Every structure is written in structure tokens, then in C-alpha cells.
Fold histidine kinase.
Amino acid sequence: MNLADNHLLDTVINSSPIGICIVNADNFIVEKVNDKFGQLHGNPNDLIAGKSFDDLFPKKNVLDKKIISDVVKNKETLYADEINLILKINDRIKETKCSPVYVPIFDNSDIVVKVAIWMIENAPSKNEAESQTKEDAIIEKERKRTNALLNEIPTGIAILSGKDFIFESANPMYQSLVPSRTLMGKPFLDALPELRGSELEKALKTVFEDGVSLSFNDDLVPFSDLESGEPEERYFSYRLIPRFDAEGSVDGIFIFTSEVTHVLNNKLGLDRTSNNLNQIINMLPASVVIIRYDELIVEMINDSNLAYWKKTRDEVVGRPFLEILPDLADQPFAGQLRRVMQTGEIIDIKESPVLFTEPDGTIRETFVDYTYQPLTGLDGKRDGVLVMSFEITDRVQARRQLEEYANQLSIAYDQLSILNNKLSKSEARFKFLIEKAPVAIGVLRGKEFIIESANNKILEVWGKPETIIGLTLAEALPEIKDQPFLGYLDDVFTTGKPFHANEIMAMLMHEDELKEIFFNVVYQPIADVNGNIADILVVAVDVTEQVNSRKMVEKSEAYFKMLADLVPAKISNALPTGEVTFLNKKWLEFAGMNFEDMRNFGYQQMMHPDEIAKFQTGLAAAAKSGIPHISEMRFKNSEGKYIWHLNIASPILDENGVISMWVGSTTDIQWLKEEEQRKNDFIGMVSHELKTPLTSVNTYLQLLLRKAEKTDDNFLKQAYIQSLKQVKHMTDMINGFLDVSRLESAKIRIEKSEFEVSDLFKEIMLDYELQYSTHKIILDSSSSLRINADRLKIIQVLNNLVGNAVKYSENGSTVQISYEQIDKNIRVIVRDNGMGIKPENIKRLFERYYRVEQDSKIAGFGIGLYLSAEIIFAHGGKIWAESEIGKGSVFYFELKLTL
């Protein structure tokens, strides 16, 4: 703040009979001087103001810069020693004595920002008295000029003298604040006795005793009416400044004041109006919000809209619309709001979808009817939008379930007339709202419930003409005599508490026929100026079609449940969140529980613990892809026994591709599992029985081969070699069947150890070179990598992959084996130049007992690749294949490295 900018302060300083200089505490620049100080300094004011203190008062001069620094540091007024000054006035040399006073000036944070230097001329000596007398006339003239200036200032100013605070001066503006009061020459508390003991009296004493200035804003001053003596509520903003005498003592107080009562009253009235408007908006059955400016700041919102947004008022008011609801950034609402402010058009939208993202990540789909009405500011320019909306989600969903009623649902909350934000001040505007609103609105007066006003919509609902206005409700609607509505209204009038009801049924006479009509209704009490209930506002919405539609949906659901109880499968239904909403009779009988127990905790507890995690992963994938999740799972029955089931969890999507519900079908396959177990047991038994004679045959053939090798009969030797190969092939097949049996019985074991991959490949290459002499086997293994795995099982996988590569490629062709590091994994690659695999067969290569049906006569049972995949999966790895017809195939598998 630059003190030189204050007009009032300029007037006071320039009118002061003492020399005043104001110096900036940071840079020691002279900011303000008066004429008196210029005379004492011997230079005009414009040659002093704006100059550095060092330039005007060199070190060791009459005024010392060090004293200013001490005043800033100590924050205390300092009275310096008397000094002699030689003045030149009108070419005359005059000697005078002055006592400098250094006064700190504080900002609002109690920091010294400036220092005022007062040059107080001391009384002249006896020898100087005569010359001083000549100057008295000049001083008197200056005093008169000062008083004239004070009288012109449009702020109340008074000067109180002495410790009794006697009115020494008061300008006309001050006198107008207390008309009919005599001030001049009277003590402050005699002129204004009602202020005895007030905070103002305490403040005056503090200023006089401590020599400090005090400021007060919007302060209540307890004035009284002179004639009646009644207290008046009057508010003032004022400042009290001490006046110092020649010795630096406080001898009076300056009062600068202005009355702000009307300002505060206007603010109070505005707050009351705003409160009334909030009450009316909250009474409306619609969601209402006012949005301002291009930033879309929420200025006002009613409780209905807060409930729809699921927000609190503190989270909403004063914040940008898209910061409150970032989910709506990709939806059209922000653009429409700005368009209304730019063009002034009214936007009226029906059944608009609004999507919200819930805290758990699910999408909440709602539907609203809404109207955007432009608002203008005080300057007449469009700067806001009044949004009035009605959530109709239930109605839209009911219509979707019953398409034949698509155009019959009533739009309950549509096109409420937009009123000015000062609607509460105008009874005519309120009546206009009631008349034009598309919802049924009426006002009932007094305990007799006289129909004071009723809009066309409520007359239409009641089935009555406009002539019923002025009658009591009982006279206008005699058919409600034995219905509960008059009782509800009586409770509202007696207790003052509003009545709310949804889908309440009434029997009303329409054209000599009683009709069953359903309403959403609000009975809102309205108090008079004394706080007594005077009227009841009736707001009703006809939801008959909505109720009838819902009843048809409920009837359809009952039919679905009946059918679900008849089918042999276990049928369930759940919300998108997973909350179970229906379990058929088969489920409840199987679990031995009722529906509530099953819904709350039973369903999860029935699942086998080993399958819960995999089931949840499958559901997540189904929710993302929209494809049903099919799995074999065990559920515990009422006897505590786990039974195998085929479980199908199907996501049901709406037209936007969003999950609306889950449907589950669970079929008992325990008998199938038992049959499969018996098959596996049989395979295991037969495989063991076959291995014994094959071992003997293999031994005899080896003995015969050794004898044949000692002869020259090449045919015999070749026959024995081929026979041994067939025995080995049969032994491999039997071992494969045994491995499948163990795998399906969960008896196959993985025994891991850490080993060097290159050593394993060198070992198996010796066998491959002897075993597959018809092909060229190439190993590319230059790097040293270690893994922690079942060594024998990995060799079994390699044997299957290399054996397949040899089996499905021509003699003399190359089979290449290699491995490489991919991130933290080892990738093993087996590549051949064989016949290749068709694309439709690749995805089924690793299924149990699957054999590729191509132009091949190669024998096999389709278990080698299945076992290889299961071994790799048991290690936490992955396996896959790539192929092209006529160009060969490449098989890959990856395992974790030991790092």
C-alpha cells in the first residue's frame, strides 16, 4: 500500500500544522512530505518527495538514518533530542527549535513498512515571543483552512480533545450520523450516553492511553432512538487515530467513520432471498442445478440432484462441472451447456443416457429427461444455465423389458418452466410456475384444505374441471372420503413434517367411472410469516403406466422362475456386480439352504477352494469379451460332499454392449467324472499289464540281434532292428497312456533341480544322432543358461517335439534345435522342413487324443503334444506352434530362468 494514494491522508497531512515526512522502511525513499516539512527542510515539496533519505539528510545531519533503522527494528516510537534549524522564509532568515518524533507505521501483519517523522516546533523563548505572535495569525488561518477541508470530505470526521474526549470538531457528515445531538464542546459519552460501557468506549481509551491507531469494520454501535429510547441496530466502519501534542503525548483522537447499516441489511436480504430460493428448489421433485461461465462452475444445486450425482454439497458447489464428474467428459453435456450460454437457445432432451463409473469400476447407466435454460447476469449478458432434470432410469428399463409398451410410459418429469433465480420474491411468477409445470401441482389453504390453486395437470389427474377451485378437497373429490389422503394431509398440517410417497394408489372418478391411478406424491407444508403452517403444496406425478409396466415385468419374472424350477439344471441369476438375485429350486435343494442364506454367504462357500481363483479369472475374461465362461467345478451338497458340475456363466449384454445381468447354468457331471476315472484306471491297469510282455520281447530281440550280428545275414539283422523299433514305439505309447492316466488323476509329479541347459542338450544329441539317423539333427546352443525344472520331464518334452519333427518330415531333411534368452525366460525352438499343419488344426494341437487329419498315414494316438503341454504348464511356462503348409513347422516352449 502506498500511503500517498490515500486522499483522506493527503488532506490530513497537508493540513497539519507540524512538519510531516513519511519514509519507506525498506529503501529509505521519502514517499510524502507536507508544506510545513518543506519549510523546515528549506526546499519545496517536489524536491524532497521521491528522493533518498541519504541525499536529503547526509550522515551526522539533524535527522539520522540510523534512528529510522532502530525504530523499524524495535517497532517503537522514538522521541529525539531538540535540534536547531535555520529557516529562510520570504527571504528572511529564521531560527527555530524542533523536536523530531519517529513513529513506526505497521501493515496488517504487524510489520513496520514505513516511518513517519514529525517535526514539532517547540515554544519560542522569551526573546522569540514577539516574533512568534506575528505567526499566530498565520497558524489560525491554517487551522480555519483545515476545518474547511474537513467539512468537504464525504466521510464522518470528528476530533476529540483530552482524556474526557470532548468534541473539539465534527464535520457535517459526522453530525448527520447523529442528528438532533449536540456535540461541540461536550464530552463524547455525554453527547452519546448510550455508548457507555461499549466496545467503542474501550477502544477510545486504548487509543488515548497507548497512542496506537485502531480500525473497525462492520461494527455494531448501540445507538438509541432519542424519542423512544429503543435501541437501534446500526453498523459502522471507523478508524481511531491518536493526536499528539508538542511533547509527543496524546492530547486527542481523530475519528474517521461511515455507516454501513444499509449495506449489511442488503446483504442479509440477499442471503434470505437465497435461502428461500434454495427451499423452493429443494421442494421441487426435479433435480435442479445452476451452472455459470465457460468453466461450468456449479453455483447452486438441490438435494435431489446431489442424490443423483452421489455427491455432497461441499464436493460440488464452486467447482467445475467436469472436475466433479470426469466420467461425463466424453458425453455431450459440457458442449451443450456452453452452446446454451453462447446462443441463448433452450435445449430440451428426452431419455438421454448418462453413464457413471462407480468406485468399484462398474458402469452405472442412468436415463434422464433434462432442460437447459440460459441465464443472464446483472450486466444482461448470458453467463449461466439452469438445468432441470428428471431421472427416468426405472421407466426406460421397464420399457426395454416390454417393448410393446415402448411409447406408453409417461414422461413424468418433463419441461418444468424455468424461472428467474429470484422466483421467491414474485407471487405471480410462482403461480406461473404452478400453472405451466408439466407435473401436477396444487396449493391447499388452511385446515379445511381449500383448493386455492390447481394447475391443468392436477385437474387432469383428478378428473375435475377448473370450477373446483375454492372448494375444499373433500367437496371437490368426494370419492376420497374413505381413502387415506385426507388423513395424510391432516398429519402434515398438524406436525409441519412433509409427506412423501411413491406409487401410492388412489381411486378417482373420471367421467362417472372410478379409475385406479398410481402417484409419486409430495405434501409440503408452507409456513406463514409467524412460522405457523398456513398452506400445503401438493406435487404429484402420475406413474400409473410405469407401475403397470413393472407389474407386467414382475409377472414375466415369476413365469421365468417357474420355468427355471422345472428344468433339471441348476439356474442362477446375478447383477453385473455379482450379487445373486435368483437361485432355482434345484440349487436350494442341492445346497439344503434357503435363498437368503445362499445369497448372503452360501454360494461362495459351496465352491471348492481350489477352483475359486480360476473361476473369478474366467468371469473377468467373460465380462470383458462377452463370451460365456465354461468350466468344470466342484460344489458341496447338503451332505458336505463335493460334486462335479459343468458350470456355464453367461454375461447378458444390453444394446450398448454393457453387462446387464449374469445367467448361470450348472449341470451335475459327477457320473461322467466317475466314468472317466474308471477309464483311466482301466488304461493304467492295461498299460502296466502290456509293459511286462513287451519287456521280455525287447530282451529276446536284443539277444537275437547280437547273435545275428555275428552272421552275414543282413536281412535277419535288419528285421531284428525294425522289430526293436516297433517294440520301442509301442513302449512309448504305453508310457504315454500311463502319463495321461497319472495326469488326469493328479498323480504326475514334478521334481525340480537346477541344471545347465547346454549340458542337457549335449546329452540328448548323442541319443538323437543314433536314434534318428535318417535325418540331420542340428543343435544351435552357444549360450550358458540355467533353469530349475524336472530334468527328465523336459527331456520327455524334447523327445516328443523332435520325434514329431522327424515323423512328419522327409528322410534326409534337417531338424534344427536351438534356444535363446527372452527377458527372464529361456525359449526352446524345434524347427522342421516337413509337410506343415493347416491353420485350423494349430489351435487344437495340444488337446488330449487329438491327431491332425491330413494326407498322412502316420500312426499315433495324439497324446505326446498333450503331455508336453501339461508338463510345461506344470512348470509355469507356455508352449505353442507356428506352421505353414508345405514349408514345415516350428514348436516353441518357454520356462523361467534361474537368475
